[in-house]
Amino acid sequence: MIDVMSQSRPGIGPRYRSDRKEYGMSDLTKHPLVAGVVGLADRHGPMTRRRLPVPRRWTDLFAPLAVVSFLLVLVSGVVLAFWFEPSMRQVVYTGDYGPLRGVTMSEAYASTVRISMEVPGGLLVRQVHHWASLVFIAALSAHLLRVFLAGAFRGHRRVGWLLLLGLLVLGIVEAYLGHSLPDDMQSGTGLRVTEGYLLAAPVVGTWLSWLVFGDEFPGDQIISRLNAVHVWVLPALIVGLAAVWLLLAYRRWRAADAADAADDPAGDPLPRWAARMGGLGLLIAGGIVAMAAAVQVNPVWLWGPFDASQAPAGSRPPWYLGFLDGAVRLMPPWEVDVFGYTLTLSVVVPVMVLPGVVLATLALYPWFEQWATGDRRDPDVLDRPRDMPVRTALVAAFVAFYLVLWIAGASDVVATLLHVPLEPLVRFLQAAVVVAPPLAFWATKRILLGLRLRDLEELRHGHATGIVVVSPEGGFSELHRPLTPREAERRVPHGAALVPAGAGAPADEHGVANPHYRADRRRALASRFYFADLPGNRPVSGDVQVKEHA
């Protein structure tokens, strides 16, 4: 820059350089910090020439929605921490909210009411914090559902699937702890229910309750303990898991970029990508803030402070835990005695066994599907829901099971709104939780098989135009339009090429038993469960089936 100035304006450059020497000013371009930044930019300079993927479908928005909402949770939580008092010390409220003035309450509840009624903008920040946490859980759940339906958990993506599942579990726990911090009647009732669940744990229930509450319920330490976990422990774990997931995604992107020397025409250069993603983040944040400003959520001043001797009518857990409460309400009141200990199955099964089975099934499913189907395709090649009808039908069955339990979690509210007796409604939901998942599985599978048959028919004969012509012989036929290459590509099934159809003989021609016969037979049964009904499959040997493509 100095040389250019000296050439364009003679006399200025040399005098400037002499002044620098005279006053002892060093060249800033030689500063170690500047040199380090320049070196870092030179090292990652090719980033500006690469193209990065941007959301192009509405389902691509789930991940950005989860990221932006979590950032809003962090920012609003930091702001709220300046005014919230995580203490159960009893005080008399003397604030601006008249209906509660003179009422004895904990400092936690009093500070929550003060934030809502007295701190400028405090209610908006509280609502943003609450709505952002709800949006984070919903967006992450939808993203997991999209990943599952597309089969984006295969191969090396299985670790990413486990990380996303762990993020969802930690997010739910984090949101529930934050929901319990205000010490209002709703959250206190939820803690009371949680204490009952802990006490129902076999053998160690009493110790677990003491470990959490520190004394007889409600004690005087639970809010401070929940606040420490909510503010420090769980956010650090969530950020750590998210960082690992992003690192794995970055490594996959670098590997794909190294394998393909040409830029991806479907992506954007880094500056444009940053501008688009920044604008998208601002839109999402603005939408959440607008929702927080317009839609009221968790008005704690209406519930009043928690009183262990009372319980509000119509109380229900947050929506992301409603299925657990519904499972407890639908479980029959069964108890068994084991070695002198009474197991309350009506609590142990829905609260401890059911979540464990669901999480273990979701975590291990990628390995099970790969074992059953032998699918070793490139995990970056995603499936349409109709390409794997059984997998999609399993999702439909799970959603039906979840929705029935979720409705049962508010069965008393539903009975009141619909003006129906509560007991018949509970009986109906108990039957539905058993009948609805198989029906949803069967109906979804048949619909997807029909869609695959239609795709194969269009691949063979083209797209039906609806124009019917009459032949000279008097026959009727419909004209078909040939598919374009893009339409044909979208209709070609992307399923696995080979499907195990048999376990082989239990022994060879010499009478030597096959040591893997039982395992192969189980695998063959599982593979037929996935592929037996797919159109285009026909047996060609005793060992494999070949999938026909039109």
From TrEMBL:
EC numbers, comma separated: 7.1.1.8
The keyword Membrane is annotated on this UniProt entry: yes
Single GO MF annotation: quinol-cytochrome-c reductase activity
GO CC, alphabetical: membrane
UniProt catalytic activity: a quinol + 2 Fe(III)-[cytochrome c](out) = a quinone + 2 Fe(II)-[cytochrome c](out) + 2 H(+)(out)
Transmembrane segments: 61-84, 131-153, 159-177, 229-248, 280-302, 338-368, 389-408, 428-444
Keyword Glycoprotein part of the UniProt annotation: no
Every Cytochrome b/b6 N-terminal region profile domain range: 25-258
Protein name as annotated: Cytochrome bc1 complex cytochrome b subunit
Organism field: Jiangella rhizosphaerae
Top-level taxonomy: Bacteria, Bacillati, Actinomycetota, Actinomycetes, Jiangellales
